[in-house]
Automatic annotation (TrEMBL):
InterPro entries: 6-phosphogluconolactonase_DevB (IPR005900), 6PGL (IPR039104), Glc/Gal-6P_isomerase (IPR006148), NagB/RpiA_transferase-like (IPR037171). Belongs to the glucosamine/galactosamine-6-phosphate isomerase family. 6-phosphogluconolactonase subfamily. Its EC number is 3.1.1.31. It catalyses: 6-phospho-D-glucono-1,5-lactone + H2O = 6-phospho-D-gluconate + H(+). The gene is pgl. It is an enzyme of class 3 (hydrolase). One of its GO terms (molecular function) is 6-phosphogluconolactonase activity. This is 6-phosphogluconolactonase. Keywords: Hydrolase. CDD domains: 6PGL. Residues 11-235 form the Glucosamine/galactosamine-6-phosphate isomerase domain. The keyword Cytoplasm does not apply. GO terms for biological process: carbohydrate metabolic process; pentose-phosphate shunt. It comes from Leifsonia tongyongensis.
Length: 256
């Protein structure tokens, strides 16, 4: 399999989340066997959380030695710790609170009632990334990074024509102008996301078809951020039929 972007189409959102969950469990077992541990970057959004729920519901869930897995986030909303808008809360409810992952292996962004301001929270997460990085690196080796995709093609909290998508020096950015509420967020930057060995994009619904079609047709990533998502080894789009409506047929992997 080359590192070209692959599109795997599923009949509907439920089939999509179930398929990604099964693939995630088997791949994570392999990564742990090969490397001794796994660093997974989670996403917010309904499809991303749907995948975590499907992982939790899988009979194979505990085939993974969760004690060897670290969980990170690609982005987070700047809201209080217990706020329903927190990507961390949704991930904990869907999966993390139900598996034997050591608390220290879960690395959430700070919440707005934990640190004074957004910039301090961005620095704090950059420091956390560096604390778990190999010597000289600024962030860990990420094995699988999940990304949802917005109708405008945003990934994490990197939005079209905003400063965040252009950032290449910082590892974490504070976002104050998110067009998707809430307006204040934190996000990993594109170089950090793309450092991941695998990027798995999960998207469903006809409102995503245009962004996906534009991205695969070569749109600029500053205008369509998902166009700039590319893992070091693999970049796979897991989509339903509605989201695939504008994907060129030659880019769609055979379904099986
Ligand atoms: O914090 C967030 O809002 C997410 O990280 C965001 O990037 C999300 O993944 C997309 O907006 C897709 O969301 P849906 O899967 O709900 O369409």
């Amino acid at each position: 399999m080359t590192n070209e972007r692959r599109v795997l189409v599923h009949p509907d959102k439920q089939a999509l989340t179930g398929s990604v969950a099964a693939r995630f469990l088997t791949k994570t077992v392999d990564i742990i066997d090969d490397l001794g541990g796994a660093n997974i970057v989670l996403t917010g959004g309904t499809v991303g959380i749907g995948v975590l729920q499907a992982v939790n519901d899988s009979p194979a869930r505990d085939s993974v030695d969760w004690s060897k897995v670290h969980f990170w986030w690609g982005d987070e909303r700047w809201v209080p710790k217990g706020d329903a808008d927190r990507n961390e809360l949704a991930a904990r409810q869907a999966l993390l609170d139900n598996i034997a992952v050591p608390p220290g292996n879960v690395h959430p962004f700070a919440a707005s009632d934990e640190l004074d301001d957004l910039d301090a929270a961005a620095v704090a997460y950059a420091d956390e990334l560096a604390a778990y990085a190999a010597d000289g690196a600024r962030y860990p080796r990420f094995d699988i990074t999940f990304l949802g995709v917005g109708p405008d093609g945003h990934i994490a909290s990197l939005f079209p024509d905003r400063a965040g998508i252009r950032e290449t020096d910082a590892t974490v950015v504070a976002v104050r102008d998110s067009p998707k509420p809430p307006p204040e967020r934190l996000s990993l930057t594109r170089p950090v996301l793309n450092s991941s060995d695998r990027i798995w994009l999960v998207l469903a619904g006809d409102d995503k078809a245009s962004a996906l079609g534009l991205a695969l047709a070569g749109a600029s990533y500053t205008e369509v951020p998902v166009a700039g998502a590319k893992g070091r080894k693999r970049t796979v789009f897991f989509v339903d039929q509605d989201a695939a409506a504008q994907v060129p047929a030659n880019l769609i992997a055979p379904s099986y």
